[in-house]
């Protein structure tokens, strides 16, 4: 099996999506890019998470040619590959229709930062315009609008997250849903206290340099 370690990582990350209530049935996907070969491991299309094994994942090159796998790759493969081709710093992506983040997608609103955890994602989660599913359109919109954020809300659709690995992108998919949920309920009670850019920058520094084990 090609890229065994990366397949194992993408498989484990994929299972985190249903475990964290971010996806139902077959929706959503995770991919990872191997830094040495630039090959991408991605979830197969329309496949149930409970049936998924590392060997079911599909290995594609950056042009979308399938190099290994007995299943069709995710319908969002062109999106993932476009982002990988245009963002040399991105080695993992996740996509979900997680409900609270998708409320912002339905409303066509970015998620403004009102929690310190927002700094982990880069502050405000930007909004990408409406694009139909299947081709490179979503990828182009992500690259154009995501900026330094690790997540983007795609209008009328859902969330895409990026990161330095599939694991980071998956963690961000969980974070963005948590943040969306709290922000959504907070706005029902009144106007949240939005963070200033300085507060976001200060917290981003904490997440980068202080938080976690190293
Ligand atoms: Zn989708």
Strand content: 5-15%
CATH class descriptor name: Alpha Beta
End-to-end Cα distance: 32 Å
| Class computed from helices, strands and strand pairing | alpha+beta
Work out the number of β strands.
Answer: 8
User: What oligomeric state best describes the polypeptide chains here?
Assistant: single chain
Categorize the overall geometry: globular
Any ligands, ions or cofactors bound here, and which? zinc ion
Tally of separate domains: 1
**Spans of at least 5 consecutive residues with low confidence:** none
Q: Quote the CATH topology.
A: L-fuculose-1-phosphate Aldolase
Give the count of helical stretches. Answer: 7
- Helix share, percent: 25-40%
Average pLDDT works out at 95
The name of the CATH superfamily reads Class II aldolase/adducin N-terminal domain
Radius of gyration equals 17 Å
Q: What is the H-and-E element order? A: HEEEEHEHHEHEEHH
Taking strands numbered 1, 2, ... along the chain, how are they ordered across the largest sheet?
4-3-2-1-5-8-7-6
CATH architecture: 3-Layer(aba) Sandwich
What is the compact description of this entry?
This protein has seven helices and eight strands; from the N terminus they run H-E-E-E-E-H-E-H-H-E-H-E-E-H-H. It is α+β, with helices and mostly antiparallel strands. It has a single domain, classed as Class II aldolase/adducin N-terminal domain (L-fuculose-1-phosphate Aldolase, 3-Layer(aba) Sandwich).
